[in-house]
Amino acid sequence: MTLMTPPPLDQQQQQQQEDDEMLVPHTDFPHGPQPMEVAQPETGNTVEAQPVDDPPSARFTWTIDNFSRLNIKKLYSEIFYVGGYKWRILVFPKGNNVDHLSMYLDVADSTTLPYGWSRYAQFSLSVVNQVQSKYSVRKETQHQFNARESDWGFTSFMPLGELYDPARGYLVNDTCIVEADVAVRRVVDYWSHDSKKETGYVGLKNQGATCYMNSLLQTLYHIPYFRKAVYHMPTTENDNPSGSIPLALQSLFYKLQYSDTSVATKELTKSFGWDTYDSFMQHDVQELNRVLCEKLEDKMKGTVVEGTIQLLFEGHHMNYIECINVDYKSTRKESFYDLQLDVKGCRDVYASFDKYVEVERLEGDNKYHAEQYGLQDARKGVLFIDFPPVLQLQLKRFEYDFIRDTMVKINDRYEFPLHLDLDRENGKYLSPDADRSIRNLYTLHSVLVHSGGVHGGHYYAYIRPTLSDQWFKFDDERVTKEDVKRALEEQYGGEEELPQANPGFNNAPFKFTKYSNAYMLVYIRESDKEKMICNVDEKDIAEHLRIRLKKEQEEKELKRKEKAEAHLYTIIKVARNEDLLEQIGKDIYFDLVDHDKVRSFRIQKQMPFNLFKEEVAKEFGVPVQFQRFWLWAKRQNHTYRPNRPLTTLEEAQSVGQLREVSNKATNAELKLYLEVELGPDQRPVAPPEKTKEEILLFFKLYDPSREELRYVGRLFVKGSGKPAEILAKLNEMAGFNADEEIELFEEIKFEPNVMCEHIDKKSTFRASQLEDGDIICFQKSPPVGSSEQCRYPDVPSFLEYVRNRQFEVYENLQTTLHGTEVLTGLEFYGYTLVSCKVVRFRSLEKPKEDEFCLELSKLNTYDDVVDKVAHHLGLNDPSKIRLTSHNCYSQQPKPQPVKYRGVDHLSDMLVHYNQTSDILYYEKLDIPLPELQGLKTLKVAFHHATKDEDVIHTVRLPKQSTVGDVINDLKTKVELSHPNAEIRLLEVFYHKIYKIFPLNEKIENINDQYWTLRAEEIPEEEKNFGPHDRIIHVYHFMKDTAQNQQVQNFGEPFFLVIREDETLAEVKVRIQKKLQVPDEEFAKWKFAFLSLGRPEYLQDNDIVASRFQRRDVYGAWEQYLGLEHTDNAPKRSYIANQSIRHNFRSCGYHRVPLPS
């Protein structure tokens, strides 16, 4: 910012100067190659000594003579030292391709510094007005210098017209005086800093323009109550994080909690619908905070965590207008999630609150029109009815300047306390309706900081995660420990003055406007601290999320390790006869093998190949002396065949050397074919010496009646020999009679079209141009006069059919994946391999056993797939087939089946996150799937009142049915203790009761995948409790010695009515009777009041009811009477009573108050 400008600058020039303060490294824009000309004219330079305290600082004064006569593009000052570093000033006397003086601070020795160097400096650059020093032009900034940005400053420092105007006072006797004030600050080594190791926390990656989001997310994450509520939002493994804000936020928070490195936010921003750079630029922190809270609030509706956002952040104030001369007052209650406080004109937060509740007088022309009384003098103001547990204060650092017609940043000093008392001065901020029993004393949790100007800058946050004395700075990927001064005082803003050592010319104090200052504060109410800063551990996280994220983390770590060590290893892929037998006619039809599906070895490059052969011997059971390896070669016609065996000399080399021999043009994997000869007893024997005369051929057999192609083996033949000589051997390989007439064809190529030519059985192999690795397909000769009609009677027609079938897939893929781009032969072959898929089908009742396989195209529609499955099973109605996809992580069926026509193609059914499966599960239904989908199926465990068992019942009702309908259905299936017994439905999770379902709740919103549904009779004592009685939660627990004595719940939770004055001793008698625990065992039990996992042990004379809150809030289940004992009771038996497979799709909940 320009501190002083000489008159007469008009407003337009002033605005231009403000707009030109873009802080960028200097850039030259010559139109062609130009020599670098840097001159050092006669100049006078002084460096004032710097103090030794931190930060080291100095002022360098540079006197440039004959300034207007300089005939060079750029000019460097002499080198000066600050903080032990070499610096210099760089000026462009005629401007850096602009009509302004351009001036930068430069790291003088940047070209000789070691790799990865960086240094951080605050600095100002000035052109001194030698007539009136107060009109000196001064601009200031800060920057982290590095090899890429070794100079930084102002391309448009000041207009050349002003600089060269003799009347302005900047050039006197053609001398220009330039000053640089530089302060060097400590820099955290970005590359070597391990945030997790140093602080226990990790940062968030910056996607570009997302640092404001990162600072807010870190703040919300470090409010554990908020994090726990996010974890408790129902999600399923079928949700896609990029399309589900709850799942994306759960995933992000889980990674922040358990990852060792910084975490990406792309899934979360995609779930917002922000997938471009512009999206990020269109939002600020306050808007993001409100968008996120609104979306979460909406997603929490109907769930167990409904109301959490309001409970945490919502406060209320009262707007009032009160007439002075008549008895009339108008009030309006409004809620807020954050408060915007003025910074301009306020010295601290208290001054802002004073201004917020300041009374405005409505009088004169601004009188208030009161009903019945007309225009009246009045007082207008705001008072607070209540403040939330988490108070978010948005500081108005950015304001619109009406005079300059632009947005400006307010960098004024603005103080905020570590402890904020909003009850001060007898509750001056509170309305008459406020509850004065609540103590509004707050402690500072986090400070969100903006560093920069109105048009850009950087955001980061200072946070106290546990409200201890230790602060942490969360700056994108970096997390560092900081002290309270750095978090508070240094974020007040205003000016910072650095002392100067020596008096001298224009020796004003060295002051910086602090462009880094707080713009948002988060306070937590002292009385809510324990609740807000609660314990959050893995049991709060859904199992499907834990499994998935742990698997992702393991894969990520494995890939990172492999990538780091990749230069030390070679991947060797070994194809064998067994692979050809397995793949040809199933996965592939052309060529011999898909190398991605053969056994691969990760071998150190330095390992001798002969040692690798020992690894192969262990893996395949083929002794080293019986192994012969062939190199594969890609031919000009795009086929890929075994080319030649390895020589003895090559096998003596290292693996790395051999790979270079086999892949001269690329750094690809080493692909080998393992030839193993078998003796009469089918055991490996030494391969015979191969002569130049011998040719290795591979054979495929085609059956026209079954339209089936399969691999039958390989043979060595002599080049001078003829096919007629091996016909008997081929018949033996095919299982035909020795004299069966067969036709032979050579498979030559398949791209761009199929070439498969008839082989003359009387010509020699050499005359037919056959060589090592060639493929011969053969089939029975059709009998003369046969009436049998086949769609594809010979090998060429069948291969043409296969190729055309795959070409249709290619056309679709080209349209969807490549637009109008033409696929290469290699790309097409890749698609050929993946377009057809052999899918293994399993009955859902036997999920571990493959029942049958079908060859399908990945682009088969839903109807195609169920039609083929129904046909295979002999079922006339395909709509009675229901399919379920496979979970690649758990190796189990997904809990939710595929909906009727709910996916477009087979490929959609087989993909699970980033993995592809070849397994599908099927069921035969008793009614068509579309009809079944109109019903809701629930699994309910009925908790018998007297029998020690739970019977699991399956209830199937129309989706619009209510919980009352479920209970009525259950009454027809269960044994009640008496005919008039009433039943209720509960939601149980991790041995805690989270909810009682209201009878009118729609079952469509109930998700029994995530929670357990339990039905039970309502005890008589609950129906008849008095006005001062209340129902409490009672849970079993023990302390886990392996986990720092953490509380672990177990067993069946239940409700208990307690009387107003009932002691623990009296309650214990009723609990023992209810649970039927023997005296000897019951004497060992301890009883405690638990809140947020912290036990407070009770004595027999304690009044139990006095410990429990009376109001219903989210988290009521976290306050309970705990029964501490070992978990040695016999487990309740669960009896399945269901005739159909249950599935649970929706995930809606409604929080219901318990009787108080």
TrEMBL record:
Domain of life of the native organism: Eukaryota
Boundaries of every MATH domain copy: 57-182
Assigned EC number: 3.4.19.12
Enzymatic reactions: Thiol-dependent hydrolysis of ester, thioester, amide, peptide and isopeptide bonds formed by the C-terminal Gly of ubiquitin (a 76-residue protein attached to proteins as an intracellular targeting signal)
InterPro entries (alphabetical): MATH/TRAF_dom, Papain-like_cys_pep_sf, Peptidase_C19, Peptidase_C19_UCH, TRAF-like, USP, USP7_ICP0-binding_dom, USP_C
Ranges where the record places region Disordered: 1-54
GO molecular function: cysteine-type deubiquitinase activity
Gene Ontology biological-process annotations: jasmonic acid mediated signaling pathway; maintenance of root meristem identity; protein deubiquitination; proteolysis; regulation of protein stability; regulation of root development
Gene Ontology cellular-component annotations: cytosol; nucleus
SUPFAM superfamilies found in the cross-reference section: Cysteine proteinases (SSF54001), TRAF domain-like (SSF49599)
UniProt xrefs under SMART domains: MATH
Name of the top EC class for this enzyme: hydrolase
Keywords: Hydrolase, Protease, Thiol protease, Ubl conjugation pathway
Residues that span the membrane, as ranges: none
Domain (USP) ranges: 202-526
Family membership: Belongs to the peptidase C19 family.
Listed name of the protein: ubiquitinyl hydrolase 1
Organism, scientific name: Parasponia andersonii
